Amino acid sequence: MLRALLNRLARRPAVRPGRVSTRRGGPGRIGRELFVSFVESSGGLPPRRLDRHDAALRRRRIARRFAVVGLTALGAWVAIESAHALAMF
What we know:
The chain has helices at 2-10, 29-41, 52-88. By secondary structure, it is mainly alpha-helical. The protein has one domain.
């Protein structure tokens, strides 16, 4: 119990969620509420894909497909050019 309390006190975030400092001229509570109401009325923000691992796997799969298609096209081109070269002799 004491350890959990000490961890909470020692590892708290520098800026607590939901609070905005107005000392440096930043938006206060009114500005944040206006922004939130604007975003809600305009349809909201686009959905974000938060799973980066799935995104990395998707990029690898697409890159692998491009590589296979490219190597297949290169092989076909080499075969056709070789057939043309042999036909000349």
